[in-house]
Structure formats: C-alpha cells, structure tokens
Amino acid sequence: MGQRLHPHCNTRRLALQALVLAGGLGALARPGSARAQAQAQAEAIKLPAPGPRDTCPVCGMFVAPYPYWVATVLWRDGKAVHFDGTKDFFKYLLDLKKYEGTRSRADIQAMGVTDYYATRRIDATRASYVVGSDVLGPMGHELVPHGSSEEAQEFMADHKGRRVLRFADVTAALLAGLDAGRFP
Length: 184
Fold this sequence. Notes:
Helices cover 30% and strands 18% of the residues. It is α+β, with helices and mostly antiparallel strands. The strands form 3 sheets. A 4-stranded antiparallel sheet has the order 2-1-3-4. The protein has a 3-stranded antiparallel sheet with strand order 8-5-9, covered by helices on one side. It is globular, with a radius of gyration of 18 Å. The model is unreliable at 1-39 (pLDDT under 50).
C-alpha cells in the first residue's frame, strides 16, 4: 500500500510537480512542438525594480505601490520603463511611436511581467495571460500573467477567466475591450 495523501490535496497537481521535478515532461516534448509550447514555462528574469517616483508612461500612476502587478521594459541602453499592470505594458508596446518616438522593439533588451502566483517577474514573451477574470488590477480588468499554461488554466477555473492568451495574441482591440469591461 502506498502513502496516503491528505484528502484535500490536489493529487493531480502533485503528480505533475513530481514529473516536472523528475524531468519527465521534458522527455515527452520535443523543442518546437505544440506540446513543448503548451508546457513551456516562462523563466524568471532579473529586471530593475521601480523606484518610488517611477510612473507608468501610459496612465501616469506611480508603479511601486503595486508590486504584484509590475511589468517592465528594459531597453538596450539601460533605460527601464515600468508599468502598473500588464494592460498598460501592452498598450505601450503596441504604440511605441507614441511613447518612445524613434525606438523599436529591436532596441528592447528584456521584458518582464509579474507572475500572479509566484509574484516574481517572468519573461513576458513566454507568459500565459488570462483575460476576463474576477481579479482586477490597479487599472481595472487586466491580463493576468502566469508562468505556465497549466497555472493559467487553474487560475481561469478559480477566478472565472474567459480566455488564456499568449504574448502574440494581445491586440489593441483586446485592450480596448478590457478597458470597456468586454472580453473579446
């Protein structure tokens, strides 16, 4: 007879964690495959923290009071731009001409968003984002970042999320919908 787990333990999640720790999932997925993409984890990245006077270039709010929502763009010249939420981060990226004039995405060294559960900054391009949940950020309805698609699915179930998106799926129309309380 095996060891008995507490009745409230989520045995599926424990089993998945054990497989990940043992490297089992890596053996199942070939790099570049759909399975590998779905199981990709956004890595933690080191980015400068916002200072007490840093403001979001999109909405003008101070960023430091919202550490669980911080997103950052680090430019190759060392300039760090911080946001009080993922929604404003994407608004900035989708309209760089408005916010940065002559800069382009090629000038970006790194981009990070704060993982909802781990509360650490992760690579924005590899994160999974939940829209339409009952969790609101400093600017209202948000794209809630997660380090894996599995965590995003769990969050979606727990918080009435509507969709899980990848970085490339975020559009200006989606952001306008979030501002209006619509989740296209």
